[in-house]
Amino acid sequence: xxxxxxxxxxxxxxxxxxxxxxxxxxxxxxxxxxxxxxxxxxxxxxxxxxxxxxxxxxxxxxxxxxxxxxxxxxxxxxxxxxxxxxxxxxxxxxxxxxxxxxxxxxxxxxxxxxxxxxxxxxxxxx
Length: 126
What we know:
This protein is an all-beta fold and about 130 residues long. It has strands at about 5, 10-15, 20-25, 30-40, 45-50, 55-60, 70-75, 80-85, 90-100, 115, 120-125.
């Protein structure tokens, strides 16, 4: 059974850091494109970052480039999102998503993803 479980969300002040983790089970994350999406109140869901271990590729939304880093811990079969220099506009529910194979520059289309976690709340105060 495929399952994604996010953790690490919470409340942080602007300029602070937070690390989100996504524990995958039922499949090997290294063979998938793994991504983080987020959805703020009243906003559409947007892609934040994605990673393909097999193709050694990482992708980021322009709004988080230089601040967020996505990585995979193959030993734990988890995907992490290190978020630094957080801004109030980063406040959202963050979701982990997975799709088999390599999607490259199409990573940000949420409809590509077959599996989703339950989401974890990130709140950044000013």
